Input
Amino acid sequence: MRGKLTAVVCAVVATVSYAQQDPQYTQFMFDRLSVNSGVAGTSGNLCATLLLRQQWSGFDGAPKTGLLNLQGAIPKINSGVGLSVYFDKLGQENSTIARLHYAYHVKLGGGSSVLGVGLYAGLSSRTLGSQWVAVDPVTEDDAIPDNGSSASGFDLGAGIYYMNKRLWAGLSSTQLPETELKNVSIKNKRHYYAQAGYRADLGKNFALLPSLLIKSDATSTQFDLNITAMYKDMVWLGATYRTEDAIAPMIGFQMPTGKEKKSMFKIGYSYDVTTSELRNYSSGSHEIMLNYCFMIKKKEVIEIYGHPRFL
Output
């Protein structure tokens, strides 16, 4: 009974506090693609990112989320492509979202900056289990599935993204069609995002990397503010503050790989200390990030031509 009760509580709290249907991550600075297609391929490298999140530890049926992002550049057509696959389990609800991203790149400032204008098309699927507990057994509710149900629908989003060696910023929107999934009585909610980050070097060995994420569904708005300190481009410590929800310390490590040491492997961990009323019931949230970017080396083109003088 406790497991069923906490699953219901989690579902209610998640709906009331923020109508969050897109993935939510504390280490959002490593997940720019899933909510903004303009990001696809702008780094010029082939990158893979995995994020795993266990939210509200201590609750049975608490949210468990996984996200995989893949992206790469297509220099010949000034473009980038990407794929985002997101899995989420909350109590009796299981969600899967898959998005194919495309971005067109415009080089600015002599090639030192890139502007990406992107679009994604995808599929949103949700499944409801059958182990529901009615508050009033006498009253029947057609919205509560008897034997479980599922539904899927079209997903579409767009975004614009700018980056140079120190600054990145983007504006985007997801779930534009607000597709209604009638079989599970769920309507996808349109979301709006603004994100930005900056790198400030403090001497030879230290750098500060502040970043900001603003997300809204036009009804409620939430801010994520992060400050991270980097040492020798190898180890970082930071903290994220999420309004009316949590404070999250984080730690990470990165190292170059490959023969020329130009590819990069990163691993990060964060722990959310809950600041809302849920702190009385939850011991917090855990999150792990893995990232690998493989530098695509351009082949040197050797041009051979004949000069009339030497014919």
